[in-house]
Design goal:
This is Endonuclease/exonuclease/phosphatase domain-containing protein. The longest helix is centred in the first third of the chain and has 13 residues. This protein has 1 helix and 9 strands, in the order ββαβββββββ. The strands form 2 sheets. A 5-stranded mixed β-sheet has the order 1-2-3-5-4, with no helix packed on it. The protein has a single domain, classed as Endonuclease/exonuclease/phosphatase (Deoxyribonuclease I, Chain A, 4-Layer Sandwich). About 10% of the residues lie in helices and about 45% in strands. By secondary structure, the protein is mostly beta strands.
């Protein structure tokens, strides 16, 4: 995995990871442990390479999938993971069917946030 960025804008701590495939249980576990150790609240994952039926495997007792998109042939994939105890009100979520992008619109402490993960770039906006 490659860590590209960790940032905190006075909002939840976010992290962008290019996973290069999360099909192996050991790699999934290590990725989730890394997020927990770095106290990441929101993880933006690119290149997950998971089948639609396997996306749920990227969850554990600390993190859940808020949005995800997978390609049918395991070549692409993006996901938004959020910490289960994060006080985030998800208003809307969506994704394409080709593993190229997914998003969530949410409120955190009365701040509107749009989180978009794409195979090209990932964006963390607030106040849309």
């Amino acid at each position: 995995k490659s860590l590209l960025a960790i940032w905190n804008l006075g909002l939840p701590l976010a992290c962008l990871i290019i996973a290069l495939g999360l099909n192996e249980p050991v790699k999934r576990g290590k990725s989730l442990d890394f997020l927990r150790k770095k106290t990441v609240d929101i993880a933006l994952l690119q290149e997950t390479h998971l089948k639609i039926a396997d996306v749920h495997r990227c969850q554990n007792r600390h993190y859940m999938i808020a949005a995800s998109s997978s390609a049918p042939n395991k070549t692409k994939g993006v996901s938004v993971l959020i910490k289960r105890n994060l006080k985030l009100n998800i208003l809307e979520s969506g994704a394409d069917t080709n593993g190229k992008f997914c998003f969530i619109k949410c409120n955190f402490d009365s701040v509107k946030i749009l989180i978009l993960v794409s195979s090209d770039q990932s964006t963390f906006f607030h106040g849309w």
